[in-house]
Write a structure and sequence with these properties.
There is one protein chain. The strands form two sheets. Strands 1-6-5-2-4 form a five-stranded parallel sheet, with helices on both faces. A two-stranded antiparallel ribbon has the order 3-7. Helices cover 34% and strands 19% of the residues. The longest helix has 12 residues. With 122 residues, the protein is an alpha/beta fold. The radius of gyration is 14 Å and the shape is globular.
Length: 122
């Protein structure tokens, strides 16, 4: 009823492609690809990106998950992408709900390329 009295918490933030590429290249941000493995095989992935499919995101990114990607915690800046931005938006909202504080939605793999990011084939 009085939700307007609550302090706003972390929220998903957009990020410009060139900024995402620059920050990832400097090691200031972790990039996560939330697409299915078949999509990675078909089109490659952003250089340096960690693959965590959307369907496994909540379990793999839990604070107590044994298979959580190394070096990622609630304060780690995280940039997510998928094919066009829909799944990465869902993934970003999930991470914010899980307590991650610096979550960015890049959109799709095409935005990574538009920002000058390299693609690697798997």
């Amino acid at each position: 009823m009085f939700s307007f009295l609550k302090a706003p918490g972390p929220r998903v933030q957009p990020i410009a492609p060139a900024e995402a590429v620059a920050r990832a290249t400097k090691g200031e941000m972790v990039v996560i690809d939330v697409r299915d493995l078949s999509e990675l095989r078909a089109s490659g992935k952003a250089q340096g990106a960690v693959h965590v499919p959307l369907m496994a995101l909540a379990s793999r990114m839990a604070q107590d998950a044994a298979d959580r990607p190394a070096g990622i915690g609630p304060e780690t800046p995280i940039c997510l992408y998928c094919a066009s931005g829909g799944r990465s938006a869902m993934a970003a909202a999930t991470l914010v709900d899980m307590g991650y504080r610096q979550v960015f939605n890049l959109g799709g793999l095409g935005q990574w390329q538009a920002g000058g990011g390299a693609i690697v084939r798997i």
